[in-house]
Amino acid sequence: MIYVISGPSGCGKSTLIKSLMARLPGLQFSVSHTTRPARPDELEGRDYYFITRERFEEMKAGGSFLEWAEVHGHLYGTSLDEVNEKSRQGDLILDIDVQGARQVKKKLSGVRFVFVVPPSYPELEKRLKQRKTDGPEAVAVRLKNARQEILESAIFDYLVVNGDLNQALEELKAIVLAHRCLFERRQKEFREILKSFKSWP
How many domains does the chain have? Predict the structure, then answer.
């Protein structure tokens, strides 16, 4: 199963994803390519693949991306190789923006789309300012983009409101666990159970 998790910048989706992966085994994370510089706490290959704009354009021209978008002046993309490799290892999470989610929805079937939102506009503004990674102008751009992303959220299957982190994490975890319990996904396990019943007189 592939889960696309999106939401406005500052909604807390990255924190939610890291917490989910720490608590729920069998999840893989699709590492995106980006042209933006790495932040002090980010590592190559763990958070992003940091590449030049020239290299990004080469990959895009070569059809290497499942989806790509320009966000806040930087390019972001999910490579097909990354998705194919990681999805063979377990359930896969894509942390991408709404533009990318729309592209994935057109190209892949059976994907579950989750939209994470803050409880209010003032709360999002407070979080963006508290991060201290952007100046006032950049914060204003992110807030403007957030309004547009929320207006386009109808393409998603699930909504997680990240007001309380623990509650939001439980909701996200419930989405994944519910899909793992689908009858069609547990056929192998169920066949073994059937065998045990058939062996009894």
Answer: 1
